[in-house]
Each structure stands twice: as structure tokens, then as C-alpha cells.
UniProtKB/TrEMBL annotation:
It is found in: Golgi apparatus membrane. Belongs to the galactose-3-O-sulfotransferase family. Its main location: Golgi. Gene3D superfamilies: P-loop containing nucleotide triphosphate hydrolases. This is Galactosylceramide sulfotransferase-like. It comes from Saccoglossus kowalevskii. Residues 1-19 form the signal peptide. Keywords: Glycoprotein, Golgi apparatus, Membrane, Signal, Signal-anchor, Transferase, Transmembrane, Transmembrane helix. The keyword Membrane applies. It comes from the Eukaryota. Pfam families: Gal-3-0_sulfotr.
Length: 311
């Protein structure tokens, strides 16, 4: 039953059918039959305004679904594109009133705004904020650069180009061109290709993003990241349950040589990823011993959930 509910919500969402849902969903729903969480309920207020900058080939679809489900269940307004009539998702677009649907129950004007933005949108903070309710929480997700490049070159069928450009770079690092897959993660945050080759600019940008983002999740530590997200947003365990999305069944083996070459070739992404992997683990350390308890509980929930899905 619970699985049907989730499946239905996701289907409904993906078809983007506005209007009331045919059933009631609430945060404290009985979707899950496990014991209560080991943590006493806190007094914080669940966050309602959030911006998730979705990046390419970082496993961000699972996180996207988490935000969509939460927004649907809590009747929040989404920034949806009028151009993508399939599901309304924003894809690589500059935000502009003329291409987005009005928020629930309102028009786009100074007194009615959006709660959630989750999409491939160029990171222009001021523009984004002008569409959002006050003080949205900003999150994004990064992925280890070698697996990211591998995913990128297979998804976009650019294996040859990527390998050739990496080899050319290793021979003659100075002759750099705007190359597919190279430093793509940092470029999604508005840095030009040329700027990604300047380590001083790269480091400054990383520092700025560190100030501007409330949490940068790391794909390799997705469950850990979600525990931090749950606390940041004052959500429940049920809110962060997920099923892996968009996963390929075959992948190339990533050799140490390939990894090492990617780190040199895509060095801005390497610095970017390393920095936020470090801050993630620093946050986990600050969380204290409760972190392991929460993580274990969450993984039990995930196991139970996927068992139910398999029925
Ligand atoms: C949903 O909840 C509202 C308010 O609690 C109630 O009036 C309504 O009948 C419920 N609808 C369904 C389909 O259960
Ligand atoms: C928004 O998009 C419309 C139509 O594409 C365009 O005419 C307008 O100049 C854009 N506005 C901004 C602020 O970019
Ligand atoms: C904004 O939209 C609201 C809701 O439709 C409306 O009541 C209000 O008059 C609008 N404000 C402006 C400045 O247009
Ligand atoms: C950029 O940051 C890295 C990692 O902290 C550091 O090793 C490097 O020296 C910095 N580069 C510049 C130009 O500041
Ligand atoms: C991320 O950081 C942790 C803690 O410093 C480290 O053990 C781990 O190897 C790093 N992961 C990657 C993929 O670099």
C-alpha cells in the first residue's frame, strides 16, 4: 500500500498534473512500519523554501525526487518551466518569468513566490532569489571527478573526444581548449572554461560557494549526506527515503591511471570535490556519535523499503 502511494506520487509528479491530489498525504503518514526513530523529536520547524541546483551526471535525480515528493506532500509551489510540457522540469535555462508557470494560487509578482526550485538552472543567485520565498536553503551535490567524467562520456557518447583531449592535455598541458567533460561540475556554477584553468579563481569560487550553499552533498556518501540534509531541513526519516534513479547497469572499470589523469586534466573539479568532501566529513564529525545511530537507522529503513518494493 505504502509503495503504491509513493509510486503514485512520483508518477503524478512526473506527469505534472496540477490541482489537488486524489488522496491525502501527510508528513507523518504511515508509509513505513518501522519503530519510531531513535531520536527524540526536535522543536525545529521543517524548511519549506529550498533551492536544489541540479547538476549533470551526479546522481542528482534521486535527490530531485526527494524534493519533489516532499513538495507535493506538503503542497508547496514549484518553479516549473512552461517550455518543457512533458514534466515542467527546468533544464539548462535562464530563469525568466515568461517561461515559468505561476506559483500555486497566485501570479508571479512581489507577493506570491515559489517554495522549491529543483532543476538544471544556471546558478545566478540574485535572479533565483527574486523568484523564491524568503531565505531559501541552497543545496547541491557533487561526484568524485573520475566517475563523473566516466559517466559524462558514456551518457553523451563522448568517449573518444574525452580520451583524446585528456591525452593531448597530458602531453602539452598549456594548449587548453574548451573541452567536453572537463571541469564540468564547477562550470555548472557559472565559471567559464577559461576561469576553471586559473587556480586562484577556482579557489575563490569554491570559498564563495561554501558561504552561499547550506549543504553540498556528496554522491559517494549519499546516505550520510541525506542525514545531514534531514537535520538541515528539520525533516523526518520518511522524507529522505529514496530509490536509486537513472542508474546504469554497466560501467567501465576506472583504473588508477584514468583517475590520476582526470585529476590533472579536470583539476578544478578535483579541488572542488575534495573541498566539499572534506567539509561533509567535518560536518559529520561535528554531528557527534549520534550520527552513526541515525545512519544505521536510516539504512534499516532503506532496506525495509526496497524489500517492500520488491514484493
Ligand atoms: C483529506 O483531508 C481533508 C481535511 O483533513 C478532509 O476534509 C478530506 O475529506 C480528506 N480527503 C480524503 C480523500 O481523504
Ligand atoms: C524573458 O524571455 C522573453 C522571451 O524569450 C524575452 O523577450 C525577455 O527579454 C526575457 N527577459 C529577461 C529579463 O531575460
Ligand atoms: C500579486 O498577486 C496577488 C495574488 O493574486 C494580488 O492580490 C496582488 O494584488 C498582486 N500584487 C501586485 C503588486 O501586482
Ligand atoms: C588552491 O587550493 C588548494 C587546496 O587547498 C591549494 O593546494 C592550492 O595551493 C591553492 N591554489 C592557489 C593558487 O591558491
Ligand atoms: C572523502 O573524504 C574522506 C574523509 O577525509 C576520505 O576518507 C575519502 O577517501 C574521501 N573520498 C574520496 C572519494 O575522495
Amino acid at each position: 500500500m505504502s509503495l503504491l502511494l509513493i509510486a503514485t506520487i512520483l508518477t503524478l509528479y512526473s506527469r505534472f498534473t496540477p490541482g489537488p491530489l486524489p488522496f491525502n498525504v501527510s508528513r507523518d503518514s504511515r508509509w513505513f512500519t518501522t519503530q519510531p526513530s531513535p531520536i527524540t523529536p526536535s522543536t525545529c520547524q521543517p524548511a519549506e523554501n529550498m533551492v536544489f541546483i541540479k547538476t549533470h551526471k551526479t546522481g542528482s535525480t534521486s535527490l530531485h525526487c526527494i524534493f519533489c515528493r516532499y513538495g507535493y506532500a506538503n503542497k508547496l509551489s514549484f518553479v516549473f518551466s512552461t517550455r518543457n510540457t512533458k514534466d515542467g522540469h527546468i533544464r539548462k535555462e535562464h530563469l525568466n518569468q515568461s517561461i515559468i508557470l505561476p506559483p500555486i494560487g497566485g501570479f508571479v509578482n512581489s507577493s506570491s513566490k515559489y517554495n522549491i526550485l529543483t532543476g538544471h538552472v544556471s546558478y545566478k543567485r540574485k535572479t533565483i532569489n527574486s523568484f523564491m520565498e524568503d531565505n531559501p536553503i541552497y543545496v547541491t551535490i557533487l561526484r568524485e571527478p573520475a566517475t563523473h567524467v566516466e559517466s559524462h562520456m558514456n551518457f553523451f557518447s563522448q568517449r573518444k573526444q574525452v580520451m583524446a583531449s585528456m591525452q593531448a592535455f597530458l602531453k602539452k598541458p598549456r594548449t587548453s581548449k574548451n573541452e567536453a567533460g572537463r571541469n564540468n561540475q564547477l562550470r555548472e556554477f557559472g565559471l567559464s572554461f577559461e576561469s576553471t584553468l586559473n587556480e586562484r579563481i577556482v579557489n575563490e569560487t569554491i570559498m564563495t560557494l561554501d558561504k552561499e550553499f547550506d549543504l553540498v552533498l556528496i554522491l559517494e556518501y549519499f546516505d550520510e549526506s541525506l542525514i545531514l540534509l534531514k537535520h538541515l531541513l528539520c525533516w523526518s526519516f520518511e522524507d529522505i527515503i529514496y530509490l536509486a534513479q537513472n542508474q546504469r547497469t554497466t560501467r567501465e572499470t576506472i583504473t588508477d591511471t584514468f583517475r590520476h589523469n582526470v585529476y590533472r586534466w579536470s583539476n578544478a573539479d578535483y579541488l572542488f570535490y575534495n573541498y566539499f568532501n572534506r567539509t561533509l566529513w567535518e560536518k559529520i564529525r561535528q554531528f557527534g556519535p549520534r550520527f552513526e545511530i541515525e545512519l544505521a537507522h536510516f539504512r534499516d529503513l532503506l532496506k525495509e523499503h526496497s524489500k517492500q518494493m520488491a514484493l
